[in-house]
Amino acid sequence: MKYIMKLCTCLALFYCSALQAELLATSDWTPDVIYGFERKEFSFTEDYDGKVTANLVRMQSQEPSTKAVLYVHGFVDYFYQEELAKTFVEHGYNFYAIDLRKHGRSLLPNQHPNFMFSVEEFYEDLDAALDVIRNQDNNEKVLLNAHSTGGLITALYLEDRPESGIDAVAYNGPFFDINDAFININERLLIPRVLKTIAALNPYGATGMKIPEQYGQSLHITERGEWNYDLNWKPIISFPIYWGWLKGIMDAQQRLQNGINLNVPVLVMYSDKSSTPILNFWREEFTETDVILDVTDIDRISDVLGRHVTEIKIEGGVHDLALSKEPVRKQFYQDMMKWVNAYMN
């Protein structure tokens, strides 16, 4: 009897050790698709599309540092901006980027690309990323750096999670309002009740709206740009804009525009000009203007973010300022890091 109990105990210990080893293995950092970066995958409870994951990417500072930055991408987007990451690393920051669920590295075959019913669906991804940054990698100060839709998501996240541990925020072309020219409709004419009905009846139906393909043409190396990113994750002809997604975005934008109160310093950077593509015609000005958002909307709405907001316009910038022409993005990095270093030291 004593032998049997001993054997059972050994087997139990072996099983627990094996299980622990498996858990540790699945939580380890692995080489990322971008050389020099590491990746960690999070798995979450299944949702209406089935399996859900998010992926955290990092590059550590060469010198010991307890300062970090978390980058959050936009719609039809993911992290591939190596130059942005290396700029932060060169300034002594540990760099992290989250590919949110259904985007980029986290997009699964069972999912509607980039879809959500509410921006709150992404909160779990941000919680997981910040837990690693703060509690596992022991960073003491954290900057949030977000682009486009990532700016909208994180603004409401910080409002709802004041205990998140973010020390400052730097936004790059944040998506605080829908560009009427971009969707060819004034969203205020799209009566909320009508939108709610359409989204409820046909959430996965395509609205017919799209991101102008001239933006992708201005960026990708196979077209007119200099950047070589994965077109499966960020196609030049964008993923569909679904009715359910549009309602979630407009709900979030309305809430933000009503006013929030971020209790940390906020930097909002954006291009000095917008331009409106017409059909598929190309104009050279698309390489030095924001063709996605109306920058006057960003200027107007930034005032409602909180009491400590700094705005900087970048002459000749595109929608993602980090992807502008080299002289322009050098100015962008110089202005951003001057502000960041002032508030993160």
From TrEMBL:
Keywords for this protein: Hydrolase, Signal
Domain Serine aminopeptidase S33: 66-273
Gene3D superfamilies found in the cross-reference section: alpha/beta hydrolase (3.40.50.1820)
One function term, GO molecular function aspect: hydrolase activity
InterPro entries given in the database record: AB_hydrolase_fold, Hydrolase_4, MAG_DAG_Lipase
Signal peptide: 1-21
Pfam families noted in UniProt: Hydrolase_4 (PF12146)
Top-level taxon: Bacteria
Name by which UniProt lists this protein: Alpha/beta hydrolase
